Amino acid sequence: MMARAGITADRLVEAAADLADEVGFESVTLSALARRFGVKDASLYSHVRSLHDLRTRVALLAGGEMIDRISTAVAGRAGKDALAAFADAYREYALERPGRYAATQIRIDQSLVAASPAFARTAEVTYGMLRAYGLDEPDLTDAVRLLRSTFHGYCALEASGGFGAPRDVQTSWNRTIDALHVLLENWPTTSAP
């Protein structure tokens, strides 16, 4: 157990993120964190307003960590190389940090999203990668949604053991990236919102 002294909001959020990776994001509670710090639940309320506030902070932390990893991976790359680096960094984070990754999937108040440097950076990196394919709005938004749903679905199925066929999961992942690259190169542009 950690000592009572020195609890800060940042330490509490980091401990919650660690706990999420250990037991699952939905199992993170203020009581479990209080036990880790050796304090009563009520003492945590001087650092976070509620469980929802704590979970939102974990989501913001995890989103920042994830985009840091992705932006490092895509730096200096374009086209298929950038797409593959983006996808691989996304998948590695999701599989290595399952609780944190689950936190990135929750809905966050739009005012917090707008104020978050991590979310701004996520949009910048993602849209920058897709602009190399010659996409503009509204196609950019559609392409982002396609990539997010594909990556998330694949990672969720892989993490839960949902791929039972004997084909190598990494090979299927690589083929998925190949297919997405071809699709993005041949995106059917729209003229209406």
From TrEMBL:
Pfam families noted in UniProt: TetR_C_33 (PF13305), TetR_N (PF00440)
Q: DNA-binding region spans which residues?
A: 29-48
Q: Which UniProt keywords apply?
A: DNA-binding, Transcription, Transcription regulation
Tell me the Gene3D superfamilies matching this sequence. Homeodomain-like, Tetracycline Repressor, domain 2
Q: Which domain of life is it from?
A: Bacteria
Q: Where is the HTH tetR-type domain?
A: 6-66
Q: Which SUPFAM superfamilies does the entry link to?
A: Homeodomain-like (SSF46689), Tetracyclin repressor-like, C-terminal domain (SSF48498)
Show the InterPro entries listed in the entry. Answer: Homeodomain-like_sf (IPR009057), HTH-type_TetR-like_transc_reg (IPR050109), HTH_TetR (IPR001647), MT1864/Rv1816-like_C (IPR025996), Tet_transcr_reg_TetR-rel_C_sf (IPR036271)
Q: What is the protein name stated in its UniProt record?
A: AcrR family transcriptional regulator
Q: What organism does the UniProt record list as the source? A: Streptomyces umbrinus
